[in-house]
Amino acid sequence: MIMDQLISGADNSGAQVSIKDSTIETFGDDVIAASRERPVIVDFWADWCGPCKQLMPALEGAVRAAKGAVALVKVNADENKTLCAQLQVQSLPTVLAFWQGQPVDGFQGNVPPSQLQAFIDRLIGMSGGDGAGDPLAEAADHANGLLDAGEAMQAAQIFQQILQHDQTYAPALAGMAEASIKLGQAEQAQALLDAIDADAAKDAKIAERITRVKSALELAAQAEDAGDVADLEAAVAADPQNHQARYDLALAHQARGDMPAAAEALLGVIMRERDWNEDAARLQLLKLFEAAGPTDPFTLKYRRRLSSVLFS
């Protein structure tokens, strides 16, 4: 399967992933010399260090995901105290990055996946690489394309595969949340949003998707109390100035997934009484836009319609 190959397949660039242990005797070759060809990350750890045991698997996974763009060298601090002293390693875990024979970046302690990825991305950029070839990112891009094409089930299957490899991968968590919304699984969508790391949520694309899913969750909650479309259409026909009935009709259309009909009903309220119920119709229409996304054809069409009504 193509997505399985993207996630776990061979390195197309030909670069070899390098993860090894080192000592003071081999440090010159393993790190200083090796860093003249690609950045080398050095992880100083110890058996008794709990945070070290948490960081190391994440660091190894991130290096493997970089597919040879960076190398990882692990140094047991208890067995290499002289080397630690020379490099002023005073707490564990300490991670130092070398490029062209010199330390260029680093951090101390366990860090969230987003910060770890940003660290590696900086090193790849520093060395002239572009970070391409990340199998999880490639798989997520493919899933996003399916989601945009309306293939929510297929997209969800790929996002699930990604999360089996890295359950904290924020683009997959956010993507799976949106797929869950489209599949009518609101509770799962909320749980996935809750699992996204706060730092990762600051990424512009992920933040946009989170906003979209949250808006969709609000709309789903509203749909639970929606009335009957036929009854509400009759009420509006009997009294076109019954703005509450027209607004409720919009919610009923929304509950059935007919967003264009919902938008038309809301525009009907706005055209008749723009500020009705503290601008409720316009605010509800904006929620529909957020749930659909800023570039969705629905949003583009009805945002133009809204502007025409407001500024006519």
Tell me what the structure shows.
There is one protein chain. With 312 residues, this protein is an alpha/beta fold. It has 3 domains: 17-126, Glutaredoxin (3-Layer(aba) Sandwich), CATH 3.40.30; 135-221, Tetratricopeptide repeat domain (Serine Threonine Protein Phosphatase 5, Tetratricopeptide repeat), CATH 1.25.40; 229-310, Serine Threonine Protein Phosphatase 5, Tetratricopeptide repeat (Alpha Horseshoe). The protein is built from 15 helices and 5 strands. It has a 5-stranded mixed β-sheet with strand order 1-3-2-4-5, with helices on both faces. Helix 6 runs antiparallel to helix 7 (152-165), helix 10 packs across helix 14 and helix 14 (276-292) packs antiparallel against helix 15 (297-310). The longest helix has 20 residues, at 204-223. The termini are far apart.
Q: Largest beta sheet: what is the strand line-up?
A: 1-3-2-4-5
Oligomer: single chain
Terminal CA distance: 54 Å
Count of spatially separate domains: 3
Q: In terms of topology, how is this protein built?
A:
Blueprint: H1 2-8, E1 19-22, H2 27-33, E2 40-45, H3 50-65, E3 71-76, H4 81-86, E4 94-99, E5 102-108, H5 113-126, H6 135-148, H7 152-165, H8 170-182, H9 186-194, H10 204-223, H11 229-238, H12 243-255, H13 259-272, H14 276-292, H15 297-310
Parallel strand pairs: 1-3, 2-3
Antiparallel strand pairs: 2-4, 4-5
